[in-house]
Every structure is written in structure tokens, then in C-alpha cells.
DNA sequence: CGGACAATAGACCGCTTGGTTCAGTTCCGG
DNA sequence: CCGGAACTGAACCAAGCGGTCTATTGTCCG
């Protein structure tokens, strides 16, 4: 109780999670057998089942953990003093990076596949991924509007638009293996396009 | 040979496909058992296996068929005489509708889930869905630029941007069950936002 | 009307799965 | 260095899986 453990009841807990993480992200829920996981984790079946009552709960735990990890890599807006172009470019790069990374893609795939069977995973994913980005973007945009840097009527819509623009091409083409990688250059081009489009719509200079 | 059949070797062929379609779209590849499918199709196992050598091939056939169906509902650009705002609004509605429909969502989900195991399904889906939309949008935009209606430097990027803007919010929130339906009104609002943004970036009036 | 033959239903097979059990081994704090 | 908790490995189970096989039904042509 004094060290690290509280809920987790044994020394191999982390091994189990880590092994399950790798196998589930690679093979999905159905594709991963419990034996695969124990092998990957270097742990016996009995040990695994001493931590988790069944495969479903183990999966939920892993999936939620990955969603939390995803949240950690999400955008943050510290430097709100710079011009919107600058702030949005930096934020956009983070969004595009996550969308094209192996990690982001794997988590997305597995959450989409199992969102029907495990609805809470769907919610968790949204909340810690697109939802979080959306929320932080909204907060930033509100500030920028108040500061007179941007002119936006429907801020939630604008936030969704910007995020979606940064994922244009990148996400879908990686998901379906049309591109095996995205160069930083190409990604930056897409982000630049997103910022340009966003600014020409909501920048203070061009009011309609 | 005189009637309807040519390739398909029996009268229950369509029943099999239809049953498999329903079960696969509902439960995915692993989630669907062959017995489920025969039950749903009202057909015996032997009958099914007389048409398809194994479950994998049946799935591929169904998935490809659904991709073809998806292609049929994709955007088309007949009326290119109207103003870009009008043409894009109509096209955008089609894109947003498909993205938020049960059909579009199911096909997307199942293709994402199995794109790793069946790479050709990933390609087929892209080709008959986002890829087709992109291609047709590019063709239209090229025309509009030539006609002097729009000013676009990177047409493929612009096409991707527009399509993505129309799917903003709609797609993700439906995928993860944050909204069970999308009213036509709300959808139209998103499409209007997409068109406005697109026009303020690429409309001929606002050159930078 | 009858016989040949394809289509069919569903019992059946071998195998893998998630999950359990248990006798024995390792680890670690006191 | 001891005692108990954590861990192991393998054997084991029932259930469900994809796929096959055979006995029966239905159909069509002479």
C-alpha cells in the first residue's frame, strides 16, 4: 500500500497489460486469443485470469488506457499570444501527426471495430480524441474571437471544420493502406492548406 | 441459361448474398458465424458452400458488392452550369447523407475493421467511396476553374478539403454513437458551412 | 409416370476458443 | 531463512467454430 500498488494486486500486472496492448492493437478483439496474449506477455493464463475476470474486461481496460494515452498527445494551446496562423499551424500539425501515426491509426481501427459491441469504448475514444481536440479548439477560438483576432459566428462548427481539414486525406488514406507513410512535408502542406482556408473564412480582414 | 442465371449457379444465390450482407454488416467478419448466415438467408450450409468455397470468399464478395452499392450513391455532377455554390451544396448534401446513413456507417466500420486482414477490401472501399467522390470533385473543380468560376492552385487538395468539410462532425459522431441520428437541418447547416468556407477560400472574388 | 440427378437439410467432425483447476515453484517481506 | 502470497504450466472442459458428408427431397425430361 505504501509503494505503487493499490488496485493492482501483483507484480506482473503491467506485463499483462502491455502484452494485451500489443496483441489487441495488432489483431483486434476477436483476432486476439487469450493464449496469444499470455505468450506475448510472458505470463501464465492463470496469472492473467487472476487480474481480470474475463477477456472482455481486459480489453476494456486496455482500450481505455490507450484512449488516455491518446489524450496525452492531443493538442494544447499554451501560446495564445501569437497570431492565429501560427497557433493553428502548430495545433494542426499535432492533429495531422496523430491522425497519420501508427498509434493513432491502430487505436482508431480497434475502437471503430468494437464500438458496436462495447459502446463505452466508442464514447471513451471520442472523448479522449476528437472530442478533446474539439473542446480545446473551441476554447482557443473563443479567446481569439474575444481578442478580435478572428470573426466566427458558429464556433463549434469552426472547430470541427479546422480539425477535419487537418485530417483531410491523411487519415483515410492511411487507414486503408493507400499510403504507407506520410512525409512531414506532405503533412505540412495539408496543414498549411487548412490554415489558409480557415483564415480566409474567419480571418478579420475578409468580412463578407 | 435462357432465364436470368449465367454465372450464378442456382436460384438461392441471391438469398445467400442477402443474408450474408445483413449478418456481416451487423456483426463483422469474426462476429458472424456461417450458421448465423444460413439461418438469416433461409438456406442450408451445403447450399452456401456450393456457391462459395469458404467464408472468406463469401465475405469478400459481399464486401465488394457493398462497395459497388456505395459507389452508386456517390455524388455526380450533371448540372455544371449553375453557380459553384449551388453545385457544391447539392454535392455536399450527398456526401453528408452517405456519411451519416446507417448503410454508409456499417460499410465503413466493417471495411476499417477488416482492412488489415483483407487489404483488397480497404482499396475497394476507398476506390468506390472517398476515392470516387474525390475523383469526381476534381473533375468538376477543373471545369469550374477553366470556366473562371473558381481560383484553385492545388485542385486535389481542394477536393479533399471540401469532402472532408462536409463530413465534419457527422461522420465521427455517428460512428461512435454520440448521435443516433442527424436531422436534415443540422446536416444542411454543416454543408452550408462547408460551402461558405470553400467559396471564401477559392471563390473568384477574394483573391489574395 | 418414372427414373436420373442436382439441390437441399442438418447431423457430424476435428479443432480452436475462453475459461478453470491444481499440484508444484518462485519470490519477497519480516 | 521461513511462511504465505504470487506465479506457473499443463491438463482439462464445454461450447462454438468452419467445413464436410450423406440421406432425402424436389424437379425436369423422356
Number of β-strand runs of chain A: 0
The helix tally of chain A amounts to 11
User: What is the second-level CATH architecture of the largest domain in chain A?
Assistant: Orthogonal Bundle
Going by helix content, strand content and strand pairing, the class of chain A is: mainly alpha
Outline the low-pLDDT stretches of chain A.
1-7
- The CATH topology annotation of the largest domain in chain A reads as Tetracycline Repressor, domain 2
Straight-line N-to-C gap of chain A: 63 Å
Total number of distinct structural domains of chain A: 2
The succession of helices and strands of chain A, N to C, reads HHHHHHHHHHH
Computed over alpha carbons, the radius of gyration of chain A is 20 Å
Largest sheet of chain A: none
Q: Sum up the overall morphology of chain A in one term.
A: elongated
Largest interface: A-B, 44 and 44 residues
Subunit arrangement of the protein: homodimer
Q: Give the helix level of chain A as a range of percent.
A: over 70%
Q: What is the C-level CATH assignment of the largest domain in chain A?
A: Mainly Alpha
Features:
homodimer, 208 residues, mainly alpha, Arc Repressor Mutant, subunit A, Tetracycline Repressor, domain 2, 2 domains, 11 helices, 71% helix, 0% strand, disordered N terminus, DNA-binding, TetR family transcriptional regulator (chains A, B), DNA-binding transcription factor activity (chains A, B), HTH-type_TetR-like_transc_reg (chains A, B), transcription (chains A, B), TetR_C_Proteobacteria (chains A, B)
Verbal overview:
Two copies of one chain form a homodimer. The first copy, chain A, has two domains: 40 residues, Homeodomain-like (Arc Repressor Mutant, subunit A, Orthogonal Bundle); 134 residues, Tetracycline Repressor, domain 2, CATH 1.10.357.10. In chain A, 71% of the residues lie in helices and 0% in strands. The first copy, chain A, is built from eleven helices and no strands. In chain A, helix 4 packs across helix 6 and helix 6 packs antiparallel against helix 7. Chain A binds a DNA duplex (30 and 30 nucleotides) through helix 3.
Amino acid at each position: 500500500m505504501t509503494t505503487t500498488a493499490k488496485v493492482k494486486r501483483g507484480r506482473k500486472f503491467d506485463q499483462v497489460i502491455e502484452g494485451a496492448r500489443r496483441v489487441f492493437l495488432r489483431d483486434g478483439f476477436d483476432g486476439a486469443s487469450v493464449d496469444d496474449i499470455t505468450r506475448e506477455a510472458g505470463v501464465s493464463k492463470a496469472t492473467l485470469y487472476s487480474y481480470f475476470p474475463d477477456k472482455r474486461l481486459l480489453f476494456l481496460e486496455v482500450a481505455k488506457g490507450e484512449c488516455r494515452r491518446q489524450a496525452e498527445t492531443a493538442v494544447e494551446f499554451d501560446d495564445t499570444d501569437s497570431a492565429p496562423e501560427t497557433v493553428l499551424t502548430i495545433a494542426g500539425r499535432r492533429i495531422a501527426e496523430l491522425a497519420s501515426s501508427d498509434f493513432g491509426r491502430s487505436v482508431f481501427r480497434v475502437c471503430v471495430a468494437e464500438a458496436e459491441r462495447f459502446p463505452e469504448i466508442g464514447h471513451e475514444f471520442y472523448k479522449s480524441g476528437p472530442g478533446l481536440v474539439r473542446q480545446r479548439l473551441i476554447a482557443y477560438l473563443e479567446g481569439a474571437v474575444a481578442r478580435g483576432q478572428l470573426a466566427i459566428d458558429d464556433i463549434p462548427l469552426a472547430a470541427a471544420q479546422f480539425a477535419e481539414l487537418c485530417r483531410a486525406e491523411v487519415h483515410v488514406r492511411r487507414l486503408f493502406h493507400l499510403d504507407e507513410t506520410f512525409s512531414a512535408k506532405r503533412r505540412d502542406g495539408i496543414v498549411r492548406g487548412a490554415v489558409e482556408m480557415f483564415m480566409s473564412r474567419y480571418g478579420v480582414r475578409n468580412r463578407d
